[in-house]
Amino acid sequence: MDFMSAWIVSLSALLFLCLIWGTHAQQAFRSEPRNLTVRMGATAVLRCEVLRASGTVQWVKDGLLLGPQRSLPGFPRYSMIGNPTKGQYHLQIEKAQLEDDASYECQVGRSESSRAIISSTVWVNMLIPPSKPYFEVDMATPWTAGKKYVVTCIAPDAKPMAEITLYKDGVELTGVESFNMSGSKDKLLNTHADVTECNEFRHTANCYLALCD
Q: Which of 70, 95, 127 delimits the end of a domain?
């Protein structure tokens, strides 16, 4: 083998080794976060594991970078947990609230040996029970015997919408019509359930309950 052939072979081998080295140095996700459904007050954990992490790892919430620290400034209920030497950068959200209902991404910044990578976008979906339901009855005008009136039960500030079942003397009422309106905050819903009843009623716990025999 002459000198020129040996030089070409050596150059090819070097390029091959560089390619192999570059592939092994490239950071990648071992596991990416998944969508979560969480009850209010519970703890949520979004998982993110990175192979050969060489760039800065941080989470993004609704497009906002949360920072690379394990304890995230400005977000006292948020922290990154897991063993970073094993590539674990899980996002933990304690005492989950409505404000945590958002989109999230795990991002790894660019480094000298690797391009930046971004996980798939996932959602934390909060389940929020309604506040105490109550009845609403128009009492501005005295009720007249023999006439029928609409009694409304309202289950406020739920996510998703509440399902209302009305009973009279232990028997489920039929003909109930439900609809939703905006709650006191964005993403919360007030569910209204209307039923038509006759004019006999009683007042209990600040709610008017229809009693038709």
A: 127
